[in-house]
Amino acid sequence: MSKTDKAWEVLFQRHDILNNVQKNGFFEIQAKEIRKEREPRLMAKFDHYKNLPTLFKENGLSILPISRSSYVIGEFDVYSKVNYDKNLKPVQVPFPSHITTIDPTNLYSESSALHCAHVTGMMADVLGEEPEQTISGRMSSKEFGFTIRTRSGLERLIEIKNSQVEIDGGYESKTKFMIVEAKNEKVDDFLVRQIYYPYRLWREKTYKEVKPVFFTYSNDIFSFFVYEFTDANRYNSLRLIEQKDYIIAHENITFDDVAALFHSIRTQAEPQIPFPQADSFPRIVDLLGLLVENDLSKEDITLNYDFDARQTNYYTTAAIYLDLVERYINKNKQVMFRLTSIGREIMLNRTKEKYLKLAGSIFAHEPFKRVFQEYLNTSKMPERKRVIQIMKECDLYNINSESTYFRRASTVISWTEWIMNLPKIY
């Protein structure tokens, strides 16, 4: 259990929270009560469903701030799914040659990705008008009320009074004001509050149309999800208008590039660590991007990003298997993760070189190279049973059962498909 899980267990027992929610439909808790166990900023901000403490997940609960000193817990529907359009080809935009203070090969913080999106004209394209960045940071929500859907389908009224609001970027044009919530990873969902509270604040402060936007920077792709609230007084009235994807202009990856890389890479002996179980290679790239900025602990990754505890284990292990990440113990005896020198060098390359070198780190392992060779020979992915047969011939570390081979084969197939799709994406 995490420190947050343990602290909420104490608070649930102390305040009989479950019974209060069942009886009254909600429970209001003061920040000072939370602080008796742990800092509220660590106990009440869960940007994704996966980040919720175990007790909240088990009982269908979530938490919202209602003032600077209090929160409300209930069966509230606070998250919205993010469905990336796989058929959307990113628009290539040139990077301005006169800009020297933004490095387009090092956009691994949310702020740097937003600044780059602005100077390359992405914000103007999304808005349809030339904007200026006017606000960012923390501010007060003022006072407003809204209804929110509960797990049982009922609507419950919530009143907000001077809650803290944080805006990653606000962009004002002639007739519009765009509020952007940013993440530097691909996500499954997001906390609607992060755009709803700012939306309610600013629609009262400007006569211009307020456009709420959720933004992700993942695998070098800038994705904008443009929303509207069809009823400003209903939290769950969020509706997606459009998704727009962009990428900094670069030399395209061709299949000939991938084939030449394949033939140039020599396989290495299998490392004495678990074979990967991490089907989404783009998530590994996101993890590497997070580690460009800072070394992170397991808890850092699990609580602050769209990974649950099991995924954190799987994806850090996969990155270690590829020699892109290493594990160490810090002075506080915490298990930490950091990029290896190879991992850091790869992540600071331009787009084409970066993804070819990442593919090379996969080809250096015999199971993946042999499966890709069969794809080259037959122009189709080998069947799973054939992939398993190849894996059994490769002296993999500590795989002892047929079921484990079956599960790990999914990783071999999905990573190979990722390499095959590089010319389509980049």
TrEMBL record:
Chain ranges of the DUF7226 domain: 283-423
Record carries keyword Disulfide bond: no
Keywords of this entry: Elongation factor, Protein biosynthesis
Domain DUF6996 residue range list: 5-73
InterPro entries cross-referenced by the UniProt entry: DUF6996, DUF6997, DUF7226
Domain DUF6997 residue range list: 74-247
Domain of life (superkingdom): Bacteria
Molecular-function annotations in GO: translation elongation factor activity
Coiled-coil stretches noted in the UniProt entry, renumbered to this chain: none
Protein name: Translation elongation factor
Gene source species: Pueribacillus theae
